[in-house]
Amino acid sequence: EPYNNLAVLFADNGQYDKARVALDNAIRTNPAYATAYVNLGDVHARLASQAYDKALQLEPSNSSVKSKLTMLRTLTGSAEGKVQAVAAVAAPAPAPAPAPTPTPAAKPVAAAPVPAPAPAPTPAPVAAKPAVAATPAPPPAPAAAKPEAKPEVKPEAKPDQKAIAKQAQDIEVDEILTAVHGWAKAWSDKDVKSYLAYYGNDFETPKGESHKDWADERRDRIEGKSRIEVKVESPVVNINGTTATVKFRQVYASDRLKADSRKVLTLTKQNGKWLIKQEHAGS
Fold first, then answer.
1. What is each CA distance from 92 to 82, 121, 153, 163, 185, in whole angstroms?
2. Cβ–Cβ < 8 Å for 75, 44
3. What is the CATH number of the domain that holds 43?
4. pLDDT tens-digit profile of 247-263?
5. Model-level pTM?
6. For the chain, what is the domain count?
7. Residue 132, domain member (yes or no)
8. What is the extent of the structural domain holding 14?
9. Which of 124, 148, 156, 244 is most deeply packed, by most CB within 10 A?
10. What are 63-116's pLDDT values in tens digits?
11. Domain assignment present for 97
């Protein structure tokens, strides 16, 4: 869900390329995530619509582009490009079982009427009048069963935009640190091709030489060593849009030199990858 919710933020800001990358990551993490596939289709539709709009600006009379754009808008409708967020909350409680029907209270038994005393006969001098037995009181009626209280069902929480933004920030930091550690490993392995791939084509060479001349010099210096070990320690990342600065302690050792120094790398995000634009010593 973090990648899908990150795509929601990007799509809401019109950053459909970034939304596409986030959804690709969501599907790669969970291939059975249906919502991510639906959102990816919507993002692709939005990107296609933008491309056709741009084509029409360049060739307003192109009827083929017009018909494709009309068809795309008809298919996507008003919901075009709208991706769905998924709240990172617990599943709602299951619906409670229906309360049992209360047993009706038993009707009280009516008391038997007390018979009226018979008229007294002419009393004999010695006969005593018999006592009339009292009718027993009826048993108390059973108390009616109380209906079972229904548990309170809380409405589903909406996605927390601050939490989603924090997730997006954490994902970017992880990607940047992965790039920096990968750069150091390629250097340590003397894998020059992979090492140079961590630098962008817009890398600002230290002496102002061409990118090719700088790359050739780096290749000679790396391949000329019998052993190289580069460690990145205590990195601190600062992100500003598509630019990131990473400050760290670089521990370098080779068959000829050992050095422990501070280094700063400036990276920019290009086509979904963080690449080095500047490299210099210092804090």
1. 25, 83, 8, 20, 46
2. no
3. 1.25.40.10
4. 999 999 998 899 999 99
5. 0.50
6. 2
7. no
8. 2-79
9. 244
10. 888 888 888 778 766 444 455 665 443 333 344 444 444 444 444 433 444 444
11. no
